[in-house]
Amino acid sequence: MPFEEMPGHDLINVVRDLDPVAAVRDQEAAERMRAYPKIIAAGPPEFGVAEQAGGVWRVLSLDSMDPYAARVDLAIRLRDGAAKAEPAVRAEMRALADAFDPEDLAAPVRSECAVGGRRYRIVRVPPFARLGADGPEPARVTDVEGGPIDGFRLDPAAPVGPSDATLRLELLGLVPDAGSVPDGERREAVAAVRAYPGVVLLPPLFAVVEDRDDHWRPITGGTGPQDARRALSHYFRRTLPRFPPPGAPPPSPGELAEYAHAADRIDDGRGVEFVACGRRFRIARVARMIRVGPDGPEPARDSD
Predict the structure, then answer these.
(1) In a domain, 94, yes or no
(2) Contact status, residue 206 vs residue 179, Cβ threshold 8 Å
(3) What is the DSSP string of 202-252?
(4) Residue span of the structural domain in which 87 resides
(5) Cα–Cα distance between 134 and 35 in angstroms, integer?
(6) Please, which residues have CB within 8 angstroms of residue 80's CB and are 6 or more apart in sequence?
(7) What InterPro entries has UniProt attached to this entry (predicted)?
(8) Residues 24 and 155 reside in one and the same domain
Protein backbone atom coordinates (compact mmCIF):
# COMPACT_ATOMS: atom_id res chain seq x y z
CA MET A 1 0.00 0.00 0.00
CA PRO A 2 1.23 3.56 -0.66
CA PHE A 3 2.43 5.63 2.31
CA GLU A 4 2.45 9.39 2.71
CA GLU A 5 5.64 11.37 2.24
CA MET A 6 7.23 12.96 5.30
CA PRO A 7 5.91 16.55 5.45
CA GLY A 8 8.49 19.30 5.92
CA HIS A 9 11.48 17.01 5.42
CA ASP A 10 13.41 19.91 3.85
CA LEU A 11 11.98 22.65 6.09
CA ILE A 12 13.47 24.38 9.16
CA ASN A 13 10.67 26.19 10.96
CA VAL A 14 12.42 28.94 12.95
CA VAL A 15 10.50 30.64 15.76
CA ARG A 16 11.99 33.68 17.46
CA ASP A 17 9.30 34.24 20.12
CA LEU A 18 10.13 31.34 22.43
CA ASP A 19 8.66 30.63 25.83
CA PRO A 20 10.96 31.69 28.73
CA VAL A 21 12.43 28.23 29.36
CA ALA A 22 13.07 27.57 25.67
CA ALA A 23 14.60 31.04 25.29
CA VAL A 24 17.13 30.33 28.06
CA ARG A 25 18.06 27.02 26.45
CA ASP A 26 18.44 28.67 23.06
CA GLN A 27 20.68 31.36 24.53
CA GLU A 28 22.93 28.80 26.22
CA ALA A 29 23.10 26.82 22.97
CA ALA A 30 24.23 29.97 21.13
CA GLU A 31 26.93 30.61 23.73
CA ARG A 32 28.18 27.02 23.42
CA MET A 33 28.39 27.29 19.63
CA ARG A 34 30.83 30.17 20.06
CA ALA A 35 32.86 28.43 22.79
CA TYR A 36 32.86 25.03 21.04
CA PRO A 37 32.76 25.87 17.33
CA LYS A 38 33.86 22.57 15.78
CA ILE A 39 31.54 19.60 15.20
CA ILE A 40 33.13 16.14 15.30
CA ALA A 41 31.85 12.59 15.09
CA ALA A 42 31.44 11.07 18.55
CA GLY A 43 31.70 7.40 17.70
CA PRO A 44 29.88 5.01 15.39
CA PRO A 45 26.16 5.44 14.65
CA GLU A 46 23.41 3.86 16.70
CA PHE A 47 20.71 1.82 14.99
CA GLY A 48 17.09 1.28 15.80
CA VAL A 49 13.58 0.76 14.50
CA ALA A 50 11.21 3.49 13.31
CA GLU A 51 7.54 3.11 12.49
CA GLN A 52 5.26 5.07 10.19
CA ALA A 53 1.58 4.99 11.12
CA GLY A 54 -1.10 7.47 10.10
CA GLY A 55 1.46 9.55 8.23
CA VAL A 56 3.65 10.01 11.33
CA TRP A 57 7.12 8.53 11.85
CA ARG A 58 8.19 7.61 15.39
CA VAL A 59 11.26 5.94 16.85
CA LEU A 60 10.33 2.61 18.40
CA SER A 61 13.78 1.78 19.76
CA LEU A 62 17.31 3.08 19.50
CA ASP A 63 19.86 1.02 21.37
CA SER A 64 21.46 -1.29 18.79
CA MET A 65 25.16 -1.17 18.02
CA ASP A 66 24.71 -2.47 14.46
CA PRO A 67 21.93 -2.98 11.88
CA TYR A 68 21.76 -6.72 12.58
CA ALA A 69 20.80 -6.15 16.22
CA ALA A 70 18.13 -3.66 15.10
CA ARG A 71 16.73 -6.20 12.64
CA VAL A 72 16.51 -8.80 15.40
CA ASP A 73 14.69 -6.23 17.56
CA LEU A 74 12.21 -5.61 14.73
CA ALA A 75 11.72 -9.37 14.28
CA ILE A 76 10.85 -9.70 17.97
CA ARG A 77 8.36 -6.83 17.68
CA LEU A 78 6.75 -8.42 14.62
CA ARG A 79 6.40 -11.78 16.37
CA ASP A 80 4.91 -10.11 19.45
CA GLY A 81 2.53 -8.16 17.22
CA ALA A 82 1.53 -11.30 15.33
CA ALA A 83 0.33 -12.88 18.55
CA LYS A 84 -2.24 -10.07 18.89
CA ALA A 85 -2.99 -9.44 15.22
CA GLU A 86 -5.99 -10.35 13.14
CA PRO A 87 -5.67 -13.73 11.40
CA ALA A 88 -5.42 -12.01 8.01
CA VAL A 89 -2.05 -10.40 8.85
CA ARG A 90 -0.72 -12.83 11.46
CA ALA A 91 1.01 -15.12 8.97
CA GLU A 92 2.47 -12.16 7.07
CA MET A 93 3.95 -10.67 10.24
CA ARG A 94 5.53 -13.97 11.21
CA ALA A 95 6.98 -14.39 7.72
CA LEU A 96 8.46 -10.89 7.86
CA ALA A 97 9.91 -11.62 11.31
CA ASP A 98 11.65 -14.67 9.86
CA ALA A 99 12.99 -12.54 7.01
CA PHE A 100 14.51 -10.00 9.39
CA ASP A 101 15.97 -12.67 11.69
CA PRO A 102 16.64 -15.60 9.35
CA GLU A 103 18.32 -18.82 10.35
CA ASP A 104 20.36 -18.54 7.16
CA LEU A 105 22.83 -15.72 7.81
CA ALA A 106 23.52 -15.51 4.06
CA ALA A 107 19.90 -14.54 3.35
CA PRO A 108 19.27 -11.13 1.73
CA VAL A 109 19.37 -8.21 4.17
CA ARG A 110 16.21 -6.12 4.54
CA SER A 111 15.97 -2.59 5.86
CA GLU A 112 12.19 -2.05 5.89
CA CYS A 113 8.80 -3.66 5.51
CA ALA A 114 5.11 -2.81 5.61
CA VAL A 115 2.31 -4.83 7.17
CA GLY A 116 -1.05 -4.11 8.75
CA GLY A 117 -1.11 -0.49 7.53
CA ARG A 118 2.24 0.32 9.18
CA ARG A 119 5.72 0.70 7.78
CA TYR A 120 8.87 -0.26 9.70
CA ARG A 121 12.45 0.74 8.94
CA ILE A 122 15.92 0.10 10.35
CA VAL A 123 17.35 3.59 10.93
CA ARG A 124 20.81 5.00 11.68
CA VAL A 125 21.55 7.80 14.15
CA PRO A 126 25.09 9.24 14.13
CA PRO A 127 26.30 10.94 17.33
CA PHE A 128 28.41 14.09 17.31
CA ALA A 129 29.97 16.51 19.77
CA ARG A 130 31.08 20.12 19.77
CA LEU A 131 34.79 20.74 20.32
CA GLY A 132 36.55 23.83 21.64
CA ALA A 133 40.02 24.85 22.77
CA ASP A 134 39.59 23.04 26.11
CA GLY A 135 38.10 19.85 24.70
CA PRO A 136 34.56 18.51 24.16
CA GLU A 137 31.51 20.52 25.17
CA PRO A 138 30.43 19.68 28.72
CA ALA A 139 26.83 19.20 29.80
CA ARG A 140 24.82 22.42 29.81
CA VAL A 141 23.08 24.02 32.76
CA THR A 142 19.78 23.70 30.89
CA ASP A 143 20.23 20.00 30.07
CA VAL A 144 17.68 17.70 31.70
CA GLU A 145 17.67 14.02 32.51
CA GLY A 146 16.79 11.87 29.54
CA GLY A 147 14.28 9.09 29.33
CA PRO A 148 13.36 6.35 26.90
CA ILE A 149 13.33 7.56 23.33
CA ASP A 150 10.63 5.03 22.43
CA GLY A 151 7.80 6.89 20.73
CA PHE A 152 9.85 9.98 19.85
CA ARG A 153 8.14 11.71 16.92
CA LEU A 154 10.28 12.57 13.91
CA ASP A 155 8.82 15.94 12.96
CA PRO A 156 11.26 18.05 10.91
CA ALA A 157 8.68 20.84 10.58
CA ALA A 158 8.29 21.31 14.35
CA PRO A 159 9.11 24.88 15.50
CA VAL A 160 12.70 25.40 16.70
CA GLY A 161 14.67 28.32 18.07
CA PRO A 162 17.45 30.10 16.16
CA SER A 163 20.25 28.07 17.77
CA ASP A 164 18.73 24.69 16.91
CA ALA A 165 18.05 25.96 13.40
CA THR A 166 21.69 27.02 13.04
CA LEU A 167 22.87 23.61 14.25
CA ARG A 168 20.65 21.81 11.77
CA LEU A 169 22.07 23.97 8.98
CA GLU A 170 25.58 23.00 10.10
CA LEU A 171 24.66 19.33 10.00
CA LEU A 172 22.88 19.29 6.64
CA GLY A 173 26.04 18.85 4.58
CA LEU A 174 28.18 17.12 7.20
CA VAL A 175 30.20 14.30 5.59
CA PRO A 176 33.54 12.72 6.50
CA ASP A 177 36.63 14.51 5.21
CA ALA A 178 38.25 12.94 2.16
CA GLY A 179 40.78 10.34 3.26
CA SER A 180 39.31 9.94 6.76
CA VAL A 181 37.16 6.96 5.72
CA PRO A 182 37.20 4.55 2.76
CA ASP A 183 36.07 6.17 -0.51
CA GLY A 184 32.96 3.98 -0.68
CA GLU A 185 31.77 5.13 2.75
CA ARG A 186 32.30 8.76 1.83
CA ARG A 187 30.33 8.31 -1.41
CA GLU A 188 27.49 6.81 0.63
CA ALA A 189 27.56 9.82 2.97
CA VAL A 190 27.41 12.26 0.07
CA ALA A 191 24.53 10.30 -1.48
CA ALA A 192 22.70 10.37 1.86
CA VAL A 193 22.92 14.17 1.99
CA ARG A 194 21.16 14.32 -1.38
CA ALA A 195 18.53 11.65 -0.67
CA TYR A 196 17.83 12.77 2.92
CA PRO A 197 18.28 16.56 2.86
CA GLY A 198 16.69 17.25 6.25
CA VAL A 199 17.86 16.76 9.83
CA VAL A 200 15.92 16.02 13.02
CA LEU A 201 17.72 16.47 16.34
CA LEU A 202 17.17 13.73 18.93
CA PRO A 203 17.62 14.06 22.70
CA PRO A 204 21.34 14.10 23.59
CA LEU A 205 23.32 11.53 25.52
CA PHE A 206 26.08 12.29 28.04
CA ALA A 207 29.46 10.61 28.00
CA VAL A 208 32.03 10.48 30.78
CA VAL A 209 35.33 11.16 29.02
CA GLU A 210 38.89 11.23 30.35
CA ASP A 211 41.67 13.56 29.22
CA ARG A 212 44.69 11.35 28.51
CA ASP A 213 47.57 13.36 27.07
CA ASP A 214 45.18 15.80 25.36
CA HIS A 215 43.12 12.95 23.88
CA TRP A 216 39.65 12.59 25.36
CA ARG A 217 38.55 8.96 25.68
CA PRO A 218 35.12 7.63 26.71
CA ILE A 219 34.83 5.80 30.02
CA THR A 220 31.10 5.45 30.67
CA GLY A 221 27.98 7.58 30.31
CA GLY A 222 24.24 7.99 30.76
CA THR A 223 21.02 9.39 29.34
CA GLY A 224 21.27 12.60 31.38
CA PRO A 225 23.97 14.60 33.19
CA GLN A 226 23.06 13.18 36.58
CA ASP A 227 22.84 9.68 35.16
CA ALA A 228 26.37 10.12 33.77
CA ARG A 229 27.58 11.37 37.17
CA ARG A 230 26.14 8.28 38.82
CA ALA A 231 27.97 6.15 36.26
CA LEU A 232 31.27 7.93 37.05
CA SER A 233 30.69 7.49 40.79
CA HIS A 234 30.09 3.78 40.20
CA TYR A 235 33.27 3.62 38.11
CA PHE A 236 35.29 5.09 40.99
CA ARG A 237 33.73 2.92 43.69
CA ARG A 238 33.07 -0.41 41.99
CA THR A 239 34.80 -0.72 38.62
CA LEU A 240 38.31 0.60 39.30
CA PRO A 241 39.02 -1.67 42.29
CA ARG A 242 38.34 -4.72 40.11
CA PHE A 243 39.27 -3.54 36.63
CA PRO A 244 42.10 -0.97 36.50
CA PRO A 245 42.77 0.81 33.18
CA PRO A 246 44.61 -1.33 30.59
CA GLY A 247 48.32 -1.39 31.29
CA ALA A 248 47.96 0.24 34.72
CA PRO A 249 48.66 -1.50 38.03
CA PRO A 250 45.79 -2.06 40.48
CA PRO A 251 45.05 1.09 42.52
CA SER A 252 46.81 1.30 45.86
CA PRO A 253 44.75 1.60 49.07
CA GLY A 254 45.51 5.34 49.11
CA GLU A 255 44.35 5.73 45.51
CA LEU A 256 41.17 3.77 46.22
CA ALA A 257 40.46 6.11 49.12
CA GLU A 258 40.95 9.12 46.83
CA TYR A 259 38.63 7.63 44.21
CA ALA A 260 36.01 6.98 46.91
CA HIS A 261 36.33 10.58 48.10
CA ALA A 262 35.89 11.79 44.52
CA ALA A 263 32.76 9.64 44.25
CA ASP A 264 31.42 11.36 47.38
CA ARG A 265 32.02 14.76 45.76
CA ILE A 266 30.20 13.63 42.63
CA ASP A 267 27.22 12.39 44.64
CA ASP A 268 27.01 15.69 46.53
CA GLY A 269 27.34 18.06 43.57
CA ARG A 270 26.27 18.91 40.06
CA GLY A 271 29.66 19.59 38.47
CA VAL A 272 30.77 18.65 34.97
CA GLU A 273 34.48 18.09 35.61
CA PHE A 274 36.22 15.97 38.24
CA VAL A 275 39.83 15.12 39.09
CA ALA A 276 41.02 12.04 41.01
CA CYS A 277 44.52 10.58 41.33
CA GLY A 278 45.77 12.99 38.70
CA ARG A 279 43.12 11.88 36.18
CA ARG A 280 40.72 14.43 34.68
CA PHE A 281 37.16 13.49 33.77
CA ARG A 282 34.35 15.49 32.12
CA ILE A 283 30.62 14.98 31.58
CA ALA A 284 30.47 15.65 27.84
CA ARG A 285 27.36 16.34 25.79
CA VAL A 286 26.79 13.98 22.85
CA ALA A 287 24.14 15.22 20.43
CA ARG A 288 22.34 12.92 17.99
CA MET A 289 20.66 13.46 14.65
CA ILE A 290 18.77 11.49 12.07
CA ARG A 291 18.62 12.43 8.41
CA VAL A 292 15.16 12.58 6.81
CA GLY A 293 13.87 12.76 3.26
CA PRO A 294 10.60 12.53 1.35
CA ASP A 295 10.23 8.83 2.19
CA GLY A 296 11.12 9.21 5.88
CA PRO A 297 14.24 8.67 8.03
CA GLU A 298 17.52 7.43 6.58
CA PRO A 299 17.90 3.65 6.75
CA ALA A 300 21.08 1.76 7.56
CA ARG A 301 23.73 2.05 4.86
CA ASP A 302 25.38 -0.81 2.98
CA SER A 303 28.69 -0.05 4.70
CA ASP A 304 27.23 -0.09 8.22
Answers:
(1) yes
(2) no
(3) EEEEEEEEEEETTEEEEEEEESSHHHHHHHHHHIIIIIHHHSPPTTPPPPP
(4) 48-123
(5) 9
(6) none
(7) DUF5954
(8) yes
